[in-house]
Amino acid sequence: MDDIIDSQVIAAISSENQIQEAIDSSCNVAFLLLGNILSLPHYVTKLKESNVRVFVHMDLVEGLSNDRSAIKFIVEKVKPTGIITTKSYIIKIAKKYNLLTVQRLFIIDRNAITKGLQMVSDSKPDAIELMPGVLPKAIDQFATASHLPIIVGGLIDTKQEIHVALETGALAVSMTSNDLWNAGL
Protein backbone atom coordinates (compact mmCIF):
# COMPACT_ATOMS: atom_id res chain seq x y z
CA MET A 1 0.00 0.00 0.00
CA ASP A 2 2.88 2.36 0.78
CA ASP A 3 4.01 2.19 -2.83
CA ILE A 4 0.77 3.53 -4.33
CA ILE A 5 0.50 6.70 -2.24
CA ASP A 6 2.50 9.58 -3.71
CA SER A 7 0.58 12.39 -2.00
CA GLN A 8 -0.11 11.92 1.70
CA VAL A 9 -3.48 13.60 1.27
CA ILE A 10 -6.25 11.36 -0.07
CA ALA A 11 -9.28 12.91 -1.75
CA ALA A 12 -12.36 11.58 0.06
CA ILE A 13 -15.06 12.25 -2.52
CA SER A 14 -18.53 12.67 -1.05
CA SER A 15 -20.26 14.57 -3.86
CA GLU A 16 -20.21 14.25 -7.63
CA ASN A 17 -18.74 17.73 -8.16
CA GLN A 18 -15.69 16.73 -6.12
CA ILE A 19 -14.65 14.16 -8.74
CA GLN A 20 -13.23 16.81 -11.06
CA GLU A 21 -11.73 18.66 -8.10
CA ALA A 22 -9.94 15.46 -7.08
CA ILE A 23 -8.65 15.01 -10.63
CA ASP A 24 -7.36 18.60 -10.64
CA SER A 25 -5.72 18.24 -7.22
CA SER A 26 -2.31 16.82 -6.34
CA CYS A 27 -3.95 13.72 -4.79
CA ASN A 28 -3.12 10.47 -6.55
CA VAL A 29 -5.51 8.37 -4.43
CA ALA A 30 -9.23 8.92 -3.93
CA PHE A 31 -11.74 7.31 -1.60
CA LEU A 32 -15.09 7.24 -3.38
CA LEU A 33 -17.78 7.73 -0.73
CA LEU A 34 -20.75 7.93 -3.08
CA GLY A 35 -22.33 6.21 -6.01
CA ASN A 36 -24.70 3.48 -7.00
CA ILE A 37 -24.46 0.48 -9.28
CA LEU A 38 -25.21 2.67 -12.31
CA SER A 39 -22.91 5.64 -11.62
CA LEU A 40 -19.99 3.87 -9.96
CA PRO A 41 -18.33 2.44 -13.11
CA HIS A 42 -18.34 5.91 -14.72
CA TYR A 43 -16.91 7.63 -11.63
CA VAL A 44 -14.12 5.10 -11.25
CA THR A 45 -13.24 5.16 -14.96
CA LYS A 46 -13.08 8.96 -14.99
CA LEU A 47 -10.72 9.01 -12.00
CA LYS A 48 -8.54 6.16 -13.28
CA GLU A 49 -8.19 7.84 -16.70
CA SER A 50 -6.59 10.74 -14.80
CA ASN A 51 -4.17 8.39 -13.02
CA VAL A 52 -6.01 8.55 -9.70
CA ARG A 53 -6.11 5.28 -7.79
CA VAL A 54 -9.65 4.68 -6.58
CA PHE A 55 -10.93 2.90 -3.49
CA VAL A 56 -14.69 2.33 -3.40
CA HIS A 57 -16.38 2.50 0.00
CA MET A 58 -18.49 -0.67 -0.14
CA ASP A 59 -20.71 0.33 2.78
CA LEU A 60 -21.85 3.47 0.93
CA VAL A 61 -22.61 2.12 -2.58
CA GLU A 62 -26.35 2.22 -3.23
CA GLY A 63 -27.86 -0.91 -4.77
CA LEU A 64 -25.24 -3.39 -3.57
CA SER A 65 -25.45 -5.71 -0.63
CA ASN A 66 -22.28 -6.55 1.24
CA ASP A 67 -21.62 -10.04 -0.05
CA ARG A 68 -19.48 -12.06 -2.48
CA SER A 69 -21.64 -11.08 -5.49
CA ALA A 70 -21.15 -7.39 -4.72
CA ILE A 71 -17.37 -7.83 -4.62
CA LYS A 72 -17.47 -9.82 -7.85
CA PHE A 73 -19.49 -7.00 -9.48
CA ILE A 74 -16.98 -4.42 -8.22
CA VAL A 75 -14.04 -6.44 -9.57
CA GLU A 76 -15.56 -7.24 -12.97
CA LYS A 77 -17.58 -4.11 -13.77
CA VAL A 78 -16.13 -1.24 -11.73
CA LYS A 79 -12.43 -2.20 -11.53
CA PRO A 80 -11.19 0.08 -8.73
CA THR A 81 -7.75 -0.16 -7.15
CA GLY A 82 -9.40 -1.39 -3.98
CA ILE A 83 -12.22 -1.10 -1.49
CA ILE A 84 -12.92 0.43 1.91
CA THR A 85 -15.29 -1.12 4.42
CA THR A 86 -15.96 -1.42 8.12
CA LYS A 87 -16.79 -5.11 7.70
CA SER A 88 -14.10 -7.74 8.26
CA TYR A 89 -15.86 -10.40 6.20
CA ILE A 90 -15.94 -8.07 3.16
CA ILE A 91 -12.18 -7.49 3.56
CA LYS A 92 -11.62 -11.27 3.49
CA ILE A 93 -13.76 -11.71 0.36
CA ALA A 94 -12.11 -8.77 -1.43
CA LYS A 95 -8.63 -10.14 -0.72
CA LYS A 96 -9.61 -13.38 -2.50
CA TYR A 97 -10.28 -11.23 -5.58
CA ASN A 98 -6.88 -9.49 -5.24
CA LEU A 99 -8.33 -6.09 -4.39
CA LEU A 100 -6.39 -3.79 -2.09
CA THR A 101 -8.36 -3.36 1.11
CA VAL A 102 -8.74 -0.60 3.67
CA GLN A 103 -10.60 -1.38 6.88
CA ARG A 104 -12.30 1.69 8.36
CA LEU A 105 -12.47 1.72 12.16
CA PHE A 106 -14.28 4.18 14.38
CA ILE A 107 -12.30 4.77 17.57
CA ILE A 108 -14.60 6.00 20.31
CA ASP A 109 -12.92 4.57 23.40
CA ARG A 110 -10.18 2.22 24.64
CA ASN A 111 -12.38 -0.83 23.99
CA ALA A 112 -12.71 0.21 20.34
CA ILE A 113 -8.91 0.16 20.04
CA THR A 114 -8.72 -3.36 21.48
CA LYS A 115 -11.57 -4.64 19.31
CA GLY A 116 -10.20 -2.85 16.24
CA LEU A 117 -6.79 -4.48 16.65
CA GLN A 118 -8.48 -7.88 16.94
CA MET A 119 -10.54 -7.20 13.81
CA VAL A 120 -7.54 -6.24 11.66
CA SER A 121 -5.55 -9.18 12.99
CA ASP A 122 -8.36 -11.43 11.78
CA SER A 123 -9.22 -9.74 8.46
CA LYS A 124 -5.67 -8.72 7.45
CA PRO A 125 -6.45 -5.58 5.41
CA ASP A 126 -3.75 -3.83 3.42
CA ALA A 127 -4.31 -0.64 5.44
CA ILE A 128 -6.45 0.74 8.23
CA GLU A 129 -8.39 4.00 8.17
CA LEU A 130 -8.98 5.38 11.67
CA MET A 131 -11.91 7.71 12.27
CA PRO A 132 -11.84 10.39 13.48
CA GLY A 133 -8.36 11.27 12.32
CA VAL A 134 -7.54 13.59 15.22
CA LEU A 135 -6.46 10.79 17.56
CA PRO A 136 -2.65 10.85 17.81
CA LYS A 137 -2.58 8.31 20.66
CA ALA A 138 -4.71 5.81 18.73
CA ILE A 139 -2.71 6.39 15.53
CA ASP A 140 0.52 5.57 17.36
CA GLN A 141 -0.97 2.46 19.02
CA PHE A 142 -2.33 1.05 15.74
CA ALA A 143 0.86 1.85 13.82
CA THR A 144 2.97 0.11 16.46
CA ALA A 145 0.73 -2.90 17.12
CA SER A 146 -0.60 -3.69 13.63
CA HIS A 147 2.45 -2.92 11.44
CA LEU A 148 -0.02 -1.90 8.71
CA PRO A 149 -0.16 1.41 6.86
CA ILE A 150 -2.48 3.76 8.76
CA ILE A 151 -4.76 6.21 6.95
CA VAL A 152 -6.75 8.63 9.09
CA GLY A 153 -9.80 10.67 8.27
CA GLY A 154 -12.55 12.69 9.87
CA LEU A 155 -12.51 16.00 11.72
CA ILE A 156 -9.23 17.08 10.13
CA ASP A 157 -9.54 20.72 9.09
CA THR A 158 -6.04 22.21 9.17
CA LYS A 159 -2.53 21.56 7.86
CA GLN A 160 -1.38 21.32 11.48
CA GLU A 161 -3.79 18.44 12.11
CA ILE A 162 -2.48 16.71 8.98
CA HIS A 163 1.11 17.10 10.23
CA VAL A 164 0.22 15.76 13.71
CA ALA A 165 -1.42 12.69 12.17
CA LEU A 166 1.59 12.03 9.92
CA GLU A 167 4.09 12.60 12.73
CA THR A 168 2.32 10.09 14.99
CA GLY A 169 2.46 7.29 12.43
CA ALA A 170 -0.18 7.82 9.75
CA LEU A 171 0.87 7.14 6.17
CA ALA A 172 -1.81 9.42 4.75
CA VAL A 173 -4.87 11.50 5.61
CA SER A 174 -8.21 11.20 3.78
CA MET A 175 -10.47 14.23 3.79
CA THR A 176 -13.53 15.67 2.11
CA SER A 177 -12.21 19.22 2.66
CA ASN A 178 -10.92 19.90 -0.84
CA ASP A 179 -9.25 23.10 0.40
CA LEU A 180 -6.48 20.85 1.75
CA TRP A 181 -6.20 18.46 -1.20
CA ASN A 182 -3.31 20.57 -2.50
CA ALA A 183 -1.53 20.79 0.84
CA GLY A 184 1.73 19.81 -0.84
CA LEU A 185 2.34 16.65 1.16
Automatic annotation (TrEMBL):
<dbReference type="GO" id="GO:0003723">
    <property type="term" value="F:RNA binding"/>
</dbReference>
<keyword id="KW-0319">Glycerol metabolism</keyword>
<dbReference type="InterPro" id="IPR006699">
    <property type="entry name" value="GlpP"/>
</dbReference>
<dbReference type="Pfam" id="PF04309">
    <property type="entry name" value="G3P_antiterm"/>
</dbReference>
<keyword id="KW-0694">RNA-binding</keyword>
<dbReference type="GO" id="GO:0006071">
    <property type="term" value="P:glycerol metabolic process"/>
</dbReference>
<keyword id="KW-0805">Transcription regulation</keyword>
<dbReference type="InterPro" id="IPR013785">
    <property type="entry name" value="Aldolase_TIM"/>
</dbReference>
<protein>
    <recommendedName>
        <fullName>Glycerol uptake operon antiterminator regulatory protein</fullName>
    </recommendedName>
</protein>
<dbReference type="GO" id="GO:0006355">
    <property type="term" value="P:regulation of DNA-templated transcription"/>
</dbReference>
<keyword id="KW-0804">Transcription</keyword>
<comment type="function">
    <text>Regulates expression of the glpD operon. In the presence of glycerol 3-phosphate (G3P) causes antitermination of transcription of glpD at the inverted repeat of the leader region to enhance its transcription. Binds and stabilizes glpD leader mRNA.</text>
</comment>
